[in-house]
């Protein structure tokens, strides 16, 4: 991309590595240079929390607001009932209205960490597409909106094509998703003069549909801007770790575990991640990313502190770093480690250490826990664990015990009360 933007927002996005594609760089840049622009990102409520894979677009909205524009976080109370089929091998499980509402309530808590919903002049807006989707008249919708969509074109989108090429079923319900997402963009333009939709590059087809629909129905020019699908330098999809999804809600992943995820970044990813997931100057991100030897580890600590402070606050970041230094440098237990509390009744007859590895989340299954122990990858109070059948009873838990999987993942087990 050789385009050199005039607007602060696009300049920052390109400099920091946020941009994959845009429907019209010049026209969007002109709009951003002329005054405040409103843009949105949509989030379906398929889980109780978003994860790190969503974070790039949330950071994009954060920069958008910081440069004087108005971000919209659109909750998919309506579209979640259908489920986005993009690049999925099978249909999403359908959720009840109550489950969707409960998920939205949890997800909304995260956004206040990144965006200011009370900012004078350009407050962020929290909206729910159920407001206009729930009461649609189907026949009117088909006549007024459906007639603008070409089945031939919809079949050509990569997200649909890849599913059909593998001969995997694509239901009519899912096929409607892209029409509903396009309609969201049209409605947001009508109601809030929303000029742009941001999303991952896997959303390109859905975004272009919204741009085209709005042009056809009300002859308005709007824009799509996508971020690259982020993978780690070893090719793994962003948002996953050895312990599962890296959730953004603290009740699903502790601030310490979140901090540790960033601290465990590979050397090659540090500079790139600092540009995207922190607000440090680009020059400083490049300097830290270029460090070698043991110095790169301190750069990883800075990355972990910056990312954790934005989501969970500076105090949580400082506590996580202090715990990590105690665990790794001093061999301590660290009060902030993920902790499993057991009742005396649960351990009265003893509980195997393999079960504890599963209960603490250090292993996904008992089989995996036993393999970890057999391969000398597990430790109990920093000593090698060799017996998968070792029973832990109330006497053994007279003081908290520390379990470790590999060198970087730890948890405490203690008696409740």
From TrEMBL:
<dbReference type="InterPro" id="IPR002305">
    <property type="entry name" value="aa-tRNA-synth_Ic"/>
</dbReference>
<dbReference type="GO" id="GO:0006437">
    <property type="term" value="P:tyrosyl-tRNA aminoacylation"/>
</dbReference>
<dbReference type="Pfam" id="PF00579">
    <property type="entry name" value="tRNA-synt_1b"/>
</dbReference>
<feature type="binding site">
    <location>
        <position position="40"/>
    </location>
    <ligand>
        <name>L-tyrosine</name>
    </ligand>
</feature>
<dbReference type="InterPro" id="IPR002307">
    <property type="entry name" value="Tyr-tRNA-ligase"/>
</dbReference>
<keyword id="KW-0547">Nucleotide-binding</keyword>
<keyword id="KW-0067">ATP-binding</keyword>
<keyword id="KW-0694">RNA-binding</keyword>
<feature type="short sequence motif" description="'HIGH' region">
    <location>
        <begin position="45"/>
        <end position="54"/>
    </location>
</feature>
<keyword id="KW-0963">Cytoplasm</keyword>
<protein>
    <recommendedName>
        <fullName>Tyrosine--tRNA ligase</fullName>
        <ecNumber>6.1.1.1</ecNumber>
    </recommendedName>
</protein>
<dbReference type="InterPro" id="IPR024088">
    <property type="entry name" value="Tyr-tRNA-ligase_bac-type"/>
</dbReference>
<dbReference type="InterPro" id="IPR014729">
    <property type="entry name" value="Rossmann-like_a/b/a_fold"/>
</dbReference>
<dbReference type="InterPro" id="IPR036986">
    <property type="entry name" value="S4_RNA-bd_sf"/>
</dbReference>
<feature type="short sequence motif" description="'KMSKS' region">
    <location>
        <begin position="237"/>
        <end position="241"/>
    </location>
</feature>
<keyword id="KW-0648">Protein biosynthesis</keyword>
<dbReference type="GO" id="GO:0004831">
    <property type="term" value="F:tyrosine-tRNA ligase activity"/>
</dbReference>
<keyword id="KW-0030">Aminoacyl-tRNA synthetase</keyword>
<dbReference type="GO" id="GO:0003723">
    <property type="term" value="F:RNA binding"/>
</dbReference>
<feature type="binding site">
    <location>
        <position position="240"/>
    </location>
    <ligand>
        <name>ATP</name>
    </ligand>
</feature>
<comment type="subunit">
    <text>Homodimer.</text>
</comment>
<dbReference type="GO" id="GO:0042803">
    <property type="term" value="F:protein homodimerization activity"/>
</dbReference>
<dbReference type="InterPro" id="IPR024107">
    <property type="entry name" value="Tyr-tRNA-ligase_bac_1"/>
</dbReference>
<dbReference type="GO" id="GO:0005524">
    <property type="term" value="F:ATP binding"/>
</dbReference>
<keyword id="KW-0436">Ligase</keyword>
<dbReference type="GO" id="GO:0005829">
    <property type="term" value="C:cytosol"/>
</dbReference>
<comment type="similarity">
    <text>Belongs to the class-I aminoacyl-tRNA synthetase family. TyrS type 1 subfamily.</text>
</comment>
<feature type="binding site">
    <location>
        <position position="181"/>
    </location>
    <ligand>
        <name>L-tyrosine</name>
    </ligand>
</feature>
<feature type="binding site">
    <location>
        <position position="177"/>
    </location>
    <ligand>
        <name>L-tyrosine</name>
    </ligand>
</feature>
<comment type="function">
    <text>Catalyzes the attachment of tyrosine to tRNA(Tyr) in a two-step reaction: tyrosine is first activated by ATP to form Tyr-AMP and then transferred to the acceptor end of tRNA(Tyr).</text>
</comment>
